[in-house]
């Protein structure tokens, strides 16, 4: 029997079967990019799959018996990878849909208490250390699926669950156009450094 490796790059090969070599993923399909995401965010999501706040049978099975220390090691490995992004897929949106999506992303909708995506995820939408993820370089279907999961209570974070509140204020059509617009944007910026500036909403899932 082959001995277990101490090399983290070898031990995370199971992750790359779905998330792609080095956690790069692709603009098509459903699985998100892991490379370069803030380590705190990745750790929180690994915990959420293990502990049942996010639902995916394969992820839950892989992580069920992993300790927090091991999850932090996995998160740190992928967070440290700085690999190129693939070219984005076309959005397929019309001019009015493009404009509506851009307004929601950059201005939000105060009448529905929807903050701009950029208010938390950064002007370049690359995320912020240690625990706010970037929104670019993700497949459209993944973005639709995650916003839908928050709307329907299938994805949860520690209270107050800010993303659930935001997603529930969006219509299904809002979700579709925003996801298509984001998936078509070029990616490549690094997450912003930590900031003491207040966020527009309270989010319980930001603890690293």
Primary descriptors:
208 residues, 10 helices, Cytochrome Bc1 Complex, Chain D, domain 2
Describe this structure in words.
The chain has one domain (8-206): Cytochrome c-like domain (Cytochrome Bc1 Complex, Chain D, domain 2, Orthogonal Bundle). It is 45% helix and 0% strand. It has helices spanning 8-11, 13-19, 39-51, 57-63, 68-79, 95-106, 117-121, 140-152, 162-169, 172-183. The longest helix is centred in the N-terminal third of the chain and has 13 residues, at 39-51. Helix 3 (39-51) packs across helix 4 and helix 8 packs antiparallel against helix 10 (172-183). The chain is mainly α and 208 residues long. The N and C termini lie far apart (37 Å).
* Class computed from helices, strands and strand pairing: mainly alpha
Distance between the termini: 37 Å
Annotated CATH topology? Cytochrome Bc1 Complex, Chain D, domain 2
**Helical residue percent?**
40-55%
**Average pLDDT level:** 93
Shape: globular
What count of domains describes the coordinates?
1
β-strand percent reads under 5%
Poorly predicted parts? none
CATH class: Mainly Alpha
CATH homologous superfamily designation: Cytochrome c-like domain
Number of helices in the DSSP assignment: 10
- Any idea what the CATH architecture is? Orthogonal Bundle
Quick one: biggest sheet?
none
Q: What does the radius of gyration come to?
A: 17 Å
**Helix/strand order, N-terminal first:** HHHHHHHHHH
Strand tally, please? Answer: 0
